[in-house]
Design goal:
There is one protein chain. Strands 2-1-3 form a 3-stranded mixed sheet. The protein is 76% helix and 4% strand. The chain is mostly helical and 235 residues long. The protein has 2 domains: 6-10 and 14-169, Helix Hairpins; 173-231, no CATH class. The protein is built from 5 helices and 3 strands, in the order H-H-H-H-E-E-H-E. The chain is rod-shaped, with a radius of gyration of 41 Å.
């Protein structure tokens, strides 16, 4: 096999190795799903705590309402019985009754607010628990796919590393050194394919001298503009 063909195959192999390393580094293992799961857990805990507080307050208000209603009935009964005849005492009791009625109305309004708050919280809680379940299933799938992809890429990488070693062993040291310098300097492309009559690296027209070198089995044609090795599949 010609040296230029070996160089081109080496570049294809090493470029694929770089791509594999990049893919492995950026493999989606579900980081965003994990973050969303943590957020949902925190929000679910917050909503549950709010529901507990609302239920406790509802219970306290219910007890207070029962006490106020009992006291209200007792005072209304006393007032209606005619036992209390002192005008000032009657006036004082009526004022106290009015305050109890206001307190009773306030407690009933607040209890209605709390019941609506609990109902809304339970509805939100159900929605978030469903979202959490979906995210957990998504995370499981992402991790399974990532593991399968990781295994596949690592197997391919192992085969490519062996192929790279084989190709490098077939190339002269001075050619390899030049190839490595070009790859480092020119964005990983040391060997450019000729496309039509142009260098695939810099898009400059290939000279007649290059075409003659391409016909030489031992030739290592290079672009006179960018310095890359040139490779043509038809040669």
């Amino acid at each position: 096999m010609r040296t230029i063909q070996l160089l081109y195959q080496l570049q294809v192999t090493e470029s694929r190795l770089v791509e594999i390393e990049r893919t492995l580094a950026n493999l989606d293992t579900g980081e965003r799903s994990e973050a969303e799961i943590r957020r949902l857990f925190a929000e679910i805990d917050s909503v549950r705590a709010d529901i507990r507080r609302a239920r406790q307050e509802l219970l306290d208000n219910e007890l207070e309402l029962n006490s106020a209603e009992a006291k209200l009935r007792q005072m209304e009964d006393r007032l209606a019985s005619g036992i209390i005849r002192n005008p000032r005492e009657v006036e004082h009791m009526q004022a106290e009754l009015e305050e109890l009625r206001r307190r009773k109305d306030h407690l009933e309004d607040r209890m209605l607010e709390l019941m609506l708050r609990i109902e809304d919280g339970e509805h939100r809680l159900k929605e978030m628990e469903e979202q959490l379940k979906e995210q957990q299933e998504t995370l499981k799938l992402l991790r399974e796919r990532a593991m399968q992809m990781k295994t596949k890429l690592e197997q391919e990488r192992e085969a490519l590393l062996k192929e790279r070693e084989r190709l490098r062993a077939m190339l002269p040291a001075e050619v390899l050194a030049r190839y490595d310098r070009l790859r480092e300097r020119l964005g990983g492309i040391a060997v450019a394919k000729i496309e039509g009559n142009l260098c695939g690296g810099c898009r400059i027209t290939v000279t007649a001298e290059v075409w003659r070198a391409l016909r030489d089995p031992d030739g290592l044609p290079t672009c006179e503009n960018c310095g890359r090795f040139l490779f043509a599949e038809t040669t």
